[in-house]
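Re: export button greyed out
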Amino acid sequence: MPEVPDTTTAVIMDSAKQKGMPALSEYDAKKVLSSYGIPVTREYLADSADAAISAARKIGYPVVLKACAPHLMHKSDNGLVALGVNTDADVQDAFAHICEKAGGTIDGVLVQEMIDGKRELVVGMTRDPQFGPCVMLGLGGVMTEIFRDTVFRMAPFDAVEAADMTAQLRSKKMLDAFRGEAPANRDMLYQTLTAVARMAMDWDGIREIDINPLIVSPDGGLKAVDALIVTGGGSDD
Amino acid sequence: MIDNIEQSRLFPITNPRSLAIFGASNNYSSMGTIILKALMAGKYEGTIFPVHPKEDKVQGLTAYRQVADLPEAPDLAVVVLPTKIVCETLAACGEKGIRHVIVISGGFKEVGGDGVARQEEMVRIADQYNMTLIGPNCLGVANTHHRLNTTPHRFYGDPGFIGLVSQSGSFVTQMFAYLHNLGAGFSTAFSIGNEANTDLVDCLEYLGACPNTKVIALYIEGIRRGRKFVETARRIVPHKPIVALYVGGSETGKKAALSHTGALSGPDELYDGIFRQCGVIRAYSIIELFDICIAFGQLPAPGGDRVFVQTHSGGPGAVAADACGRAGIRLPEPSKSTREKLADMIPATGSIKNPIDVTFTKDMPQFLSDLPRAIIQDPACDILMLYFYLPAEMVKRMLLSMGVGRDEMDQKVREIGDSVAGIVKGIIRDTGKPIVCFSYHNREEVAVRSLAASGIPFYQGPERAVRVISAMILHRSFKRKIEEQAAT
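Workaround output, generated via the alternate export path:
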């Protein structure tokens, strides 16, 4: 965790405010998360197919390509994501396909490492009129809203509280050794939760946050694979 | 946070030396009269000044035509007047020097429209005269230790130990008899109504410092000062348990959320996490709320989470063990020394595992004295769940065989119930460990009434007993968590 305040978030929040966008792009959101010490996928924003190929080679195949823009809050529903892209030629095709689908109003195409891992969590933040910023931990992925296995805490809170929060999750057992995968790095999870809480305390302009999924990799590490930071729709000061 | 209750601005409301009542008359059916009669029936010891525009005497008490005529400014005014004259009366009270008021009358914010403006006017008057005001649209306060009861329901019971803050007046008044029957009662109960000037958090803070309150019950439909609530509860919980029933319908309405997190943050989920964050035990019914409060008030806190179950037959033991298992409660094996001690007292058909099935002994009272005393002393036992089965029918048969005559039978059966309850209480006192009694009996059994009279909780069915045990274990872990957080 950086002791000296990072200016990344300030710059990004400032620019979002000036543009009047409802949310940060995934690329910017990840930079904000990263500046708070939250592990995110390795990724590059590409403005051409060649740039995308060079990014993919740097990351190593397979990679994921995603349209990147502040107004794209739920990308996978609209054919704006290509998973498991394995070759230069496939990157070229996927890049063209995504640009065509997106219709030209995007910042670029995000090329990111493909994270495998059977376990998906969601971490988020919402603002309640009575309790203020509240952080959520839950079972992530596509089934989040089916199982509704979620736990909330009022921000800010410490690692002890984050541990208690995790213990309240019905599916907490999946954080132990699971189907050949190592136990999840609990300290990293607690750090992520307390960091999201701190982010909400630091930035009134951040209205809501979704990190979904936060994937537990086979070695137990965590990575924010998709992220949404909502900045519009509330009074920010 | 207050340390001494007398520092609280609510103290004169709950402990008034004198009070004025507005709206009581000689018409027996008026709400004000019903409240005055309940106050008098409860033997309130302070001075009562009825204020009435026409009467010289109200219910035998000297009445005053207007507040200005009162010989002194009383500690408290209780206002039970028609809505339209409430605010002018408050202003007159303020002029007289009255600084504490309970407004029972409704017709304010809860009705919308003009009511909202009327409530704003009320708040303005309260601010102007630096008044502490409870209500409007409430039933006020019952402080059983001060014999104060501003509600329309009479209360004849003994002073109790449960502090209540309720967003419904009914859970103050309609619980008087319910708790009395269970051998418990309120210390101070607040019906807070519209919370115009004094809210749930103010009353919670008061009860945290109230020496007569051993446990705090909350009935919540919505918390307004959420962050202050969390801070206040976290300070109280390490020295006094808080149990809350939350039933949604809160003001936690949110704008259309853009995130999944926002869509998933229903008020019920938020309250669930936040209660745990501040160490508040969540109950899911009124019955459960008071089941848990009674145990917290009457039993010592357990030193751990290991439970022993004692029964005298297989079925109740198996059902109790099943209920424990579902709640994630551990039933450890009895130690060697306990097994040896019990071997002398239990027939060969019994089982010295956990649940400990002692089978039917010839000596019924022994089942509820020597056996639990031996079992609870096991070092692995933190809590004893005791099948409290002492039917009058069987006690009578035993007494008949001992030559007790029918004329003194009922008396003797009562004495045995009282004596067994006294023994159970003695075991709890001597060991400092909680015994949670249960069976499928109820208060029709004399021995169950003896337990209540001795201040020992009794639960109908193991499921209710297990919920209480879970709450005790949870409170212990909440307390430890808050202490750990304070230390780091």
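The longest strand of chain B covers residues 186-191. The button fix ships in the next patch.
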